[in-house]
Design a protein that fits this description.
It contains 2 helices and 4 strands. By secondary structure, the protein is an alpha+beta fold. It has one domain. The longest helix has 9 residues. The two termini are about 20 Å apart.
């Protein structure tokens, strides 16, 4: 999903793995694990994707960088 953001270029969600992949404007890519679909839906609705990410995703879900 693409949206205007100063921090996040795009994100996608794999329902079967509950994995959220975030592509940052910097070009870095991270996978966040065991993210409930409801959280992703709330992120889609959030006015500021970056703020939602920093307040809800980043502190609560394990992640790993992805080499692209």
């Amino acid at each position: 999903m693409y949206m205007p953001s100063t921090v996040i270029r795009s994100f996608s969600y794999d329902k079967t793995k509950s994995r959220l992949r975030i592509v940052f404007v910097s070009g870095k890519v991270y996978d966040y694990f065991l993210v409930p679909e409801e959280v992703v839906e709330e992120m889609k609705k959030a006015f500021s994707k970056g703020t939602y990410f920093n307040e809800v995703i980043k502190p609560n879900y394990q992640f790993e960088p992805i080499d692209v």
